[in-house]
Design goal:
10 helices, 4 strands
């Protein structure tokens, strides 16, 4: 274990090996070193470069050959119709289809780049959630250690009294059992902390094992948002990167409709040929070389099964993209509403715990402790009261963490970190 700890520390940045990093520092480091960000960037660049390639004219075609070569002699200078020809052919796109293809590729690349913003939010939410859980576990660990110290002191007190015949053996055994129960709870707590740090290592590397979460986030941007009392959250959700991804997809689909309309335009081609002749005319004069030029054009006359269907498919694609956006907005709005309800109810429950439940539990424990000292209460009553007080303290800590998790969900959905 010592060797493993030393190897972890040697891979850490200089500042993290000596003092714990803040939550924002960890998030920024994780985003900066996130491999998925690089993958998204490569994918977007690939789409953009392919769009440029697809928006160019087709390569010209070179045509070379021999025309009118007599098969009896295969002589180039026997028949004046024999010529060696070289031609160049170039085909053009339909209407503005090339520029529209490049435009659509840029829109698709923009949609992919927006996914990088979604990924950054995902990383922020995940690390913040783990940070909150670590802070809760640290707080609950401290509470259990205090409870353990209390029962250890009680065990020593009972052991001393048992030695002089004052305390009963069952009281001493019960106190030791309670100490063992707290030891088990502490071990479970450490296990959960280690698991969380192992999960954080996906984004933070080896410095995940050095994370020390002692405080909760402040949520200033989120508090400012709710202070403004928005009537609904659709305006804020429309600026979410997840919705912006669908916005770019809608633009790309609309460009697809423009492309489908261009398929009704004719497609032109140009061909120029030069023919070199070696034979003479019948009167003995040299036969002149020949130049030929052609213009080709395909005419889309039968559009019912091809162009019409392409246009209809492109229009349906626009409808599907818009429906996807509306569905995502509704889902996210429902999630915001549910998280806001959880937050409000958790706040009310925390107030009850802090003002009533924990106070009453402490008063009960103190009263039973005085009764035990005066021989009017049993030890098991005191242990149950102290255990119940610890349970209430842990429940209060859990509620505080749940409130933070609700804020984390809201900050993610509303993009208010």
């Amino acid at each position: 274990m010592g060797l493993a700890t030393n190897s972890w520390g040697s891979n850490l940045p200089a500042n993290t090996a000596h003092k714990p990093s803040s939550l924002n520092t960890l998030i920024n480091w994780a985003i900066e070193h996130d491999i998925a960000q690089q993958q998204i960037q490569f994918q977007a660049d690939a789409i953009s470069e392919m769009g440029i390639a697809n928006s160019q004219l087709m390569d010209p075609k070179l045509r070379m050959g021999v025309n009118g070569l007599p098969v009896d002699s295969f002589a180039f200078d026997e028949d004046p119709m024999t010529n060696i020809s070289v031609g160049l052919m170039q085909q053009f796109s339909r209407g503005n289809s090339l520029s529209l293809q490049q435009k659509q590729s840029l829109q698709k690349a923009g949609s992919v780049r927006k996914q990088a913003d979604v990924r950054r939010l995902d990383v922020t939410q995940t690390i913040t959630s783990a940070w909150i859980e670590l802070a809760y576990l640290d707080q609950s660990y401290s509470l259990m250690k205090q409870n353990q110290a209390l029962f250890r002191e009680l065990t020593r007190y009972l052991s001393t009294n048992y030695g002089v015949g004052v305390s009963q053996a069952q009281d001493l055994i019960q106190a030791k059992l309670q100490v063992s129960k707290v030891d088990e709870q502490l071990q479970s707590n450490r296990q959960m902390q280690q698991r969380l740090r192992a999960q954080l290592s996906e984004w933070l590397g080896e410095q995940a094992w050095q994370v020390k979460a002692t405080t909760y986030p402040k949520w200033q941007a989120l508090q400012d948002y709710f202070t403004s009392s928005p009537r609904d959250h659709y305006q804020a959700l429309a600026a979410h990167p997840r919705i912006q991804v669908t916005d770019e997809l809608i633009k790309s689909s609309e460009t697809g409709v423009e492309l489908a309309n261009e398929s009704y335009q004719p497609q032109f081609g140009v061909e120029v040929m030069y023919a070199y002749r070696q034979a003479d005319r019948m009167d003995g004069s040299p036969a002149p070389d020949l130049v030929s030029a052609f213009v080709t054009m395909d005419i889309p006359l039968f559009t019912e099964k091809r162009q019409d269907k392409k246009l209809s498919a492109a229009q349906h694609q626009v409808g599907a993209a818009r429906t996807q956006r509306d569905l995502a907005l509704k889902q996210m709005h429902a999630q915001v509403s549910a998280a806001a309800i959880d937050r409000d109810n958790t706040q009310q429950r925390l107030i009850r715990y802090r003002s009533m439940l924990l106070k009453q539990a402490k008063e009960k424990t103190q009263a039973i402790e005085r009764g035990y000292q005066n021989n009017t209460s049993q030890l098991d009553e005191y242990i149950r009261a102290a255990s119940e007080e610890l349970v209430i303290e842990l429940e209060q800590a859990r509620l505080a963490a749940d409130l933070q998790q609700a804020n984390n969900t809201l900050a993610y959905l509303l993009n208010k970190y």
